[in-house]
Amino acid sequence: MITHLHIKDFILIDLLEWDLREGFTSITGETGAGKSIIIGAIELILGGRAEIRKMLRPTASKAVVEATFLLEEKIGLRPVFEQNDLDYSSTCILRREILSSGKSRAFVNDTPVSAALLKEIGDHLVDIHSQHHNRLIGDPDFQRSVIDMLSDNSSLRESYAESYTQYRDLSAQLAAEQERVRREREEEDYITFQYKQLDSAHITIGEEAELRERLAMAEHATEISQLMHELADLDAYSREEEASVLSRIHTLSHDCKGLADTFPAAGEYGERLEAVYIELKDISNSAARRLDEIEIDPQELAQLQDRMNQLQSLIYKHNVSDGDELIRLRDKYKEQLDSITSAEDRIGELKHKVEKAHLAASDLAEQLTKTREQGIKSFVPSLMEGIDELGIKGASFKVSLTKTKELTATGQDEVRFLIATNKQTTLLPINEIASGGEISRIMLALKAIISEHQILPTIIFDEIDTGVSGRAADQLGRIMKRLSRHLQVLSITHLPQIAAQADQQVIVVKEEGKESYNTSLRPVEGEDRVRAIATMLSGSTQTEAALDNARELLNNHKP
What is the band of 50 on the pLDDT scale with cuts at 50, 70, 90? Predict the structure, then answer.
């Protein structure tokens, strides 16, 4: 439950401190006093959207809304706190700050959190029900969620959701595979032609680069051949010289080593010359061997050029960068052709998986239907009792549960609430026949039933009594009072029949200051409360009759 509310610089509120109590609290005040501002502040700390320009009080740099909650283990928030590294205790403070810079910040026990986490926590703490929520009663999804809540089938719904997701994903895989195969089959002749052309070319890895090297070598064959000859001739004798270069180096190395004992430096020179000799000897031999490679005859050159032209033509045609990419493209075409060949087997296997998943999901959907049927059996009499108590006499109510053609994310049931508000009318969807006042009363009766199945410590009714008066208003108050036995109930109301039944009453007042208006909140007790109820009965002019009626209302609803 909420134990304290602190609001500062929020819209029309300069500073508001409110200690809340257990039971039923009515919030009253003139239209425009700012009751909805207080509810808006509570919605904000529960993770609601921050409309910064509208929420910050003029001239303020920051608006702050903070609420203290008393937590009970049954609410189930401990795992949420632990999963998000938040300290858990029996007291929890939620805070929201709106900055003039256009940013908003959220805190749980002074630890910064996201608005999404604040909302997740808030969903466990407070249920705010306002007039626009009444429209939900005509929403089939809301109607189904009500039946599910009363059917106690949450674990079964989780199992079904997992099974349905698997069925949906497999169905998507099957559809994608069938579409892919269809497209490939349309292009099968083209793919086959392309593959055969590339395969018949017998391209090898690195072939294009090797061809380029060979052709470049052929283009400069004369210069390369001359160089190779000169390198090979390092070990050859010329007519002018009696010894080759290598022979002279070898002799010098031998002579240096011979003087090593008398002239140590000569020994070092000998070793170095021997290393030079070995390296040059290897170069000379290698150059001699490559001479045959360099000398390309015209026929071989023509073959190399033809092969290069073939590869270049294929590279251009297939819009790739080199011969190796042609090989990868050929392999891709081969995989596509193999895939087309084996498509029936793959599609058949996927169809089997889809059928198996559909069967499993259908079985769980059938189980869900049975739980809903049982939930409806207990729900309908309870709601009929509630709406009868709220003054809708002679009404009939039915929950229509029809099977959908296909499985959906929530099962295979379509839920519709049907009502006849008197004996003369036929059963129709609730949003098509019930008036605004009737919907308010039906929704309250529904909330009373739901509250017995939800573990929410606080419920707030924001002017849900629009269109209600007389005995029906008194019955609305009685149901709120009954709810307050196990919930903290806050009700914004304009009806004295409801306000008088509350355990405590607070009045929201808008006061005019020097520069702006200010909304504040004032608890009323004793004669102050009598006058507050009398004002609700007769307006600003309080007569003795109105005061007597107010006392009678309050006395009639004393514990």
Answer: confident
The model's pLDDT over 241-261, given as tens digits with 9 standing for 90+, comes to 556 788 888 888 888 888 888
Of 130, 22, 32, 76, the residue nearest 439 (C-alpha): 130
Helix then strand then coil, in percent of the chain rounded to 5, is 55, 20, 25
The radius of gyration computed from the CA coordinates of the chain, to the nearest angstrom, equals 45
Query: At a CB cut-off of 8 Å and minimum separation 6, what does 358 contact?
Result: 167, 407
Q: For the sheet containing 411-420, what is the strand order? A: 396-408, 411-420, 428-429
Nearest to 48 by CA among 528, 460, 414: 460
pLDDT, tens digit, 9 for 90 and up, residues 455-475:
789 999 988 777 777 788 888
- Cβ–Cβ under 8 Å, residues 52 and 97: no
What is the per-residue pLDDT across 408-424, written as a single tens digit (0 to 9) for each?
999 999 999 998 887 76
Residue 487 gets the label, from left (phi > 0), alpha (psi -120 to 50) or beta, of beta
The answer to whether 412 touches 404, Cβ cutoff 8 Å, is yes
**Once rounded to an integer, what is the mean pLDDT over residues 375-396?**
87
Contact yes or no for 69/20 (Cβ under 8 A):
no
Angle (CA) 512-514-517 rounded to 5° is 30
Query: What is the arrangement of strands in the sheet containing 517-524, beginning at the earlier edge strand?
Result: 126-130, 458-462, 488-492, 24-28, 504-512, 517-524
